[in-house]
Amino acid sequence: MSTFYVLRHGDILNPHQVVYLRMDQEIPLSDLGKQQVAIQAERLRTCHIQAIYYSPLWRTKQSAHILESVLKTNHLIPEPKLLEVSNPQQGTAFHDFDRRYHGDLYHPDLIAQGGETIPQVAERMMSVVQQIAHQNPNQSIVLVSHGDPIKTFWLISDSLAFNKQNLGSERFPIPGVPYPAKGSVSVFQHTENQLTRTDYWLPPEV
Hints:
Elements: E1 2-8, H1 31-44, E2 49-54, H2 58-71, E3 76-78, H3 94-101, H4 108-112, H5 118-135, E4 140-145, H6 147-157, H7 164-167, E5 185-191, E6 194-201
Parallel strand pairs: 1-4, 2-3, 2-4
Antiparallel strand pairs: 1-5, 5-6
Helix pairs in contact: 1-2, 5-6
């Protein structure tokens, strides 16, 4: 059985209020975000972490390096499958995106243009877990990723359908549908291709 501590990167700077998705160095961690990750790193000290895999965008890379400065795993590994959702409207101002697509990253018009679907995001995320668990049996691993990709782990764990209602949203919260916050840690056990969420660490108050 492998244990995965899945960190959503900390709070960010998005000065132009755009749909940032896979934008890179334009979207760094804020000072608050750095503090959030540093506090979670201290909590992870007692978890015997063997490796840190991270989405190779700047905000997740920053988060991973903060973790490594505390945990000292000597196994800090970029993993492209942990990337944020791919979408053709990346970089569009929120107000324009919301007017055209009602804030929906999975709008049929965007999927038709090559945007990822929720099942596609879930499939690539689960493939990472299975690969790492196979390579690192019975170990404790940190993954650093993004909101929607992490939420697909919740759907898998809870045996929920891959749809927008179950996924939820940070910008447009759905009542009764929780969503992983920036700076939070979702804890999962993986055994025999089963993923079970066992804990959720809220982002620390700074």
